[in-house]
Design goal:
With 233 residues, this protein is α/β, with parallel strands linked by helices. 32% of the residues lie in helices and 28% in strands. The two termini are 21 Å apart.
């Protein structure tokens, strides 16, 4: 089942005299349960692509459909609700609330939405990410890897249609980086979570099921299970 589809997605910055195309007519389809990495040189458009899919920025033209809903047609209020419920966002800066415990940070999106989390699923996430003994800790009492695990748990709790990770290991050493990637792989395999991961690290990209390479705002390579399937952009 298709979770995400981008059609002729274009993003242009700057004025008419000096426009810069961050994304150039990109077409992309992602199926439910896929673990896809997006890689490329700095300025290739990979973070722009993630921001557009996450609905934190708007395309200049083209469509983005998540579970067949065209997110470019939503107003600001509906966009915020859709993003909170359908899109999990993980950044290299963990964006945890320093005065809240790990447990309260994980539950915060649900509380903002005035919804009660499913306790069984909460327990499964906490145990999968090995956070059980850290639930009452504050963020400053955690290591970088533990803070990132907390951010991942917060993003997973809503059972988002797609989890977007923008350089989630950028602030971590190699050991913690591979631990986070292993946990994302477990989330993908055990929880069937669809994941789109932006990374500049080729070794991390090779851990995913599918690798997209961007260059000058276009997808120039699309590899699945090590077999070239051709660019889609």
């Amino acid at each position: 089942m298709e979770i995400l589809r981008c059609e002729k997605l274009t993003k242009t910055y700057g004025g008419k005299e000096n426009p810069v195309k961050a994304l150039d007519d990109v077409n992309l389809s992602v199926e439910a349960g896929e673990f896809v990495s997006v890689t490329g040189a700095s300025g290739s458009g990979k973070s722009t692509l993630l921001h557009l899919i996450g609905n934190v920025d708007q395309p200049s033209s083209g469509k983005i459909l998540i579970e067949n809903a065209d997110i470019s047609m939503l107003n600001m209020t509906k966009s915020a609700i859709f993003r909170r419920r359908k899109v999990g966002l993980i950044y290299q800066f963990y964006n945890l609330i320093p005065t809240l415990t790990v447990e309260k940070n994980i539950l915060l999106p649900m509380k903002l939405d005035k919804r009660t989390p499913e306790q069984g699923y909460f327990n499964e996430i906490v145990d999968t990410l090995n956070l059980r003994n850290k639930l009452k800790s504050l963020p400053h009492e955690l290591s970088g890897g533990q803070q990132q695990r907390t951010a991942i748990a917060r993003s997973l709790l809503y059972r988002p249609a797609i989890l977007l990770a923008d350089e989630p290991t950028g602030n971590l050493d190699r050991k913690n980086s591979m631990e986070i990637i292993d946990l994302l792989k477990i989330s993908n395999q055990k929880l069937n979570q669809t994941i789109l991961l932006v990374t500049h690290d080729e070794n991390i990209a090779l851990e995913t099921k599918r690798i997209l390479v961007l260059e000058d705002g276009k997808i120039i390579s699309d590899q699945k299970n090590g077999i070239e399937t051709g660019g889609r952009g």
